[in-house]
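Recap for those who missed Tuesday's class. We walked through two folding examples back to back. For each one, the amino acid string is listed first and its predicted structure tokens come directly after. Nothing is annotated here on purpose, so try labeling regions yourself before you check the end of the notes.
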Amino acid sequence: MVHDPRVSSCLARLGGVYHDPVRVDRDAATLLKSPVGGNLMPIVAELYESRSRTSTSSGGRGTATHVLVLQGTIAMHFKGQTYQILMDIYLPPGYPNRPPIPFVRLAPDMYLKENHRHVGSDGKVYMPYLHGWRASSHDLIELVVAMSSLFSAEPPVFTRRPGTTGPATSNVNRENTAFATATTSLNPIVDPAAAAAGGMLSDEEAIAAVQAQEARERAAAEERLQAEERRRQEEERLRLEEERQNKRALEAQEQWELQRTEQARVQVTAKLRQHLQEQARQTHVKITDELERELAKLKVAKKQKIEAPIEALAKQKAFLEQQLAVAEESKLNVESWIDEVTASKKLEDSTNNVMSIDDKVYAESPLHAQMMGLSAENAALSDALYFLDCAMQKGNLPCEVHLKQVRELAKRQFLVRAHLIKISQTVTLSSASVAY
């Protein structure tokens, strides 16, 4: 666990302000030991809060509470340069459930940008990261990195030149000017000739004074050069240190952005995988239900449209086979009876010398014999057509079979009747010729 004695000392002074002092100690120490929070230090200060406003001065007319404040500077990158912004990050009594309360502080020669999107006129910071603060997923390092990113895109403070309201030259140039003025006024120059003219020195003394003055000037020049070299070395050291800090801050910010991107990618991938799995499960369930319903319908249809007709046809087949057997038996009985009756009739006719109807009726000529055969066939065809109509009317004969048989028999009857008409005309002509 990360620990910082300075934070622990401040928390000991605050007593029971925080419900979770271990979390406060860990978060603050982690920020102070990180590259982005190296310029911050913990202090104890008053935080004035009211229902409508939070302030760091008694002008807010709220309840004053001593809290832990992380005070110092954070880095801001603007137009290729790195600047340090004064910040006070207040940790309210409800932290970490409540978000921190950051304030931008001003140096004597600085001013706040008017109508800044994320910084109020009192220096309080407003940003989406604070509005969406969650104790389980947010921390102070990400807050500092987010503020640095926002302030780099839109700086909240600027340096004021004397007599102007815009950004001025850097503090280093003003320090250089002040340093040059101060070192120049340390050793005032004395004019030896003027002193000799006034009777204060002899010629040897004047020469010695001039030489001493030149030595002092050389020493002062060397001292100025050494001081300038020391100042330049110090500036170079500070610049290198600032570059290292800025590099560490940039690396930390890039690492944070990479972590956030990777975390978002993992979350999106997990949600997408979960969504696809849920869709696949629902689709599988839906398809399974539809298949079961279709199978049930097929079973019912099979039972109603296939099995039931097959069973009915099987019963009808058995019945027809039984009827066929009865019919065959009846046919044999009838044929046997007919044979017996025919034999008995022949025996009786032969005994009584009775002639058959065929022997009693005969034709006078071949034409009349042909007419008798055709008339008998015509009558038989008429009877067949009549019985076909009766069978169809009773439902014993399908309509298709009836039509087919009727067509064949009608065609045959037409030819028979035409033949009869032709023979009748021939017979009539023969009779007429015989009469003449």
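Example two. Treat it independently of the first, because the proteins are unrelated.
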Amino acid sequence: MEDLRQLQVTDLFLDMLTEDNENFVDMDRACRDLILESGGVPLVTARLSSRREETVLSAITTLTNLATAPAAAARARVTDAAVVQCMLRFSLSESPRLRNLASVFLQDCCTERQVAQAEQQMQVGGQQSAMGIPLPADPAP
């Protein structure tokens, strides 16, 4: 994190937001494509198991953005069965932000068939794991 501060990445990002530049959207697409091409989806997916809710929310938001890629293969990587199972579990969370964001992901990024298959797999395999993605522990009541 210190390296990002030294490179002033945040300042560069904020500076770009103040410019009246239509290419900013293109940069967003370029970043998305770079993450997909460099095999970054598993790195983002791994953040779904973080104990920090903010990190999980950021990971869901990033996956939602990655799912907008025009390539069907990219969407398939982002909406893998394990990710869909994770989102189903998060959609039952007590946290409204986590519950709502997971629900948006399921509605906007997944097909009804993917959701139904993930629900069925969870019933058969139990709800405590999502095919390789360690889920965060449930908060204490």
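Answers for example two:
The two ends are 33 Å apart (CA to CA).
Residues 23-37 form the longest helix (15 residues).
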